[in-house]
Design a protein that fits this description.
Length: 570
Amino acid sequence: MEPNAVSGVSSRSSAPRRRTMLLTTLLTAAALVAGSATPSVAAVTAPVGVHPDGTRPQVLAMPVPGPLEVGFTFKPAESGTLSGVRFYQNASNSGVVSASVWSSTGVLLAQAPVNPAAAVGWRTVPIELDLDADVTYTVSVLDNDGRIPAIENFFAEPKTTNGIVTAAKAGVYKSSAGFPTIGQTSSGLVDVAFTANPDLESGSEPSEPEPTDPVTAAPTPDPAGPVSAVGPDGTHWPENTPRADAARVVNVKPTWSAIAAAITAESKTSDDVVICVAPGTITGGNGAGSSAKGVLQDIGNASRTSRILVSACAGVGTVKTAGDKGIAFVGVRGVSIVGIDMGSTSVMLRNVEAFGFGYTTVGTLLVTANGGRGVQNADVVEVVAGAEAVTGVGYDRMEVKSADGYSVNDLSFSGLYAAPHYKERGSNAHTDTIQFVTTTGSGTITNVLLEDSAIFQSSNQGIIAGSNSGGEMRNTLVVGGKTSQLRYPVYEGGQPIVAANSLHGTWSNLAVETSTVAGSVSSSYSFSTVEASASTKGDRGFSKLVPLTLADLDEMAPVPTAERLAAIWG
């Protein structure tokens, strides 16, 4: 092939609504009398690309065998938001199976699957990323058939189109899946949906028009504002679960077998009961992967009047776990496990129902539905998924998975604190703080609650939703980009974070109340309500957030050190 030819690709927590989150907002520019301005790409409000909507291929399908990755490399003239990767569907089954965004060094910043079957014409794959001005990015699609469309000599010389700067031979391809680097002058009709927005957190601040009489600009609120801390504070408790001092006591040794036997026996009773685990270390664990056998498995009674409490009655931290394989709770019903110290263990909650888990630290947390009745009515309370960033890893801090057609419904996180996972420079791993995903089958993720929680962005995203529907985000702080790095700077040798991806992916009918999002909010989120909440952009019902300082973060979301947890958990 010639070098210039295209060749390749509702709250259920018992905690009251007792606090007001920091809401540092600015009044909108509508209160100001705008002056005239010189037009620029910053004034463009609709997404733009390098190809007009009416563009059609000169060559409908190049006769090149697949798989092929094809796209183009560009720099935004202004900072802004990528809301999608566009490509021309040249046949009813084009063979295109994914769309990707890459850094200049080949780090995969975002990727989305594509159904190859669709009507002929332009398609937009929703992917949202904040892009910095004068930074090089590549967008591409993977075509498993390889017969991609083309316009020859489209990238024959450098040019700027709609604020998108492309060099000569900006078209790129690779004769397999992955980062495309071979330059070409032809376009494979891959494009972007990009909106310039200079006041992104990662970009420069635009100049504000001066107010004129009689309108007076409102004073900037105090960024330390009325605030109470999010994260663990000792006030949250699993639903329908008695306190230890108000329940009948069953004492057991610190072994999983003793705990399992007690749960089995008490599943037949109906009064409030606590299984008090004697001080000591519980050994055992078969791992925390999606198919791991549980240390407690297929026991309990979801129909019980109240959940059975399993707790360290001598105090949080008096019962610990040991082992490095990870711990799984599988098919456990009508039980809440509170105050058993998991340390830095990986924990999985799989196919649990009427289940509570909390007052502990974990290394990673996986909630998965792949059997039984899936995950139903589960509470994660006062869990610290890392107080410090973990470096040099290529996996998520927390995952919520629907698989094999089973669903996750009514899952709540109350008083959660989640620190980042940072991957190595150049790593292609996808590393999020919380990932919601349906991996196989038609299962759904519905009615998730995030309450009084703090989530800090990992190398890729803070929260990435996987077609979630319903649910609430209340009194919660999600922090991305440079703001997150005030507390958790990327380590030397770590992959730089170039976008403030706080709420990513797709989530429909989410209700947001008294919450703060420092970073971007995906255009694929739809909100049933947004009340008394702030975001970096300050659009879609959010007030505009005054940039947060490290002191603000320390007040809003204190680091849950061992000393702090000992004080609040007792």
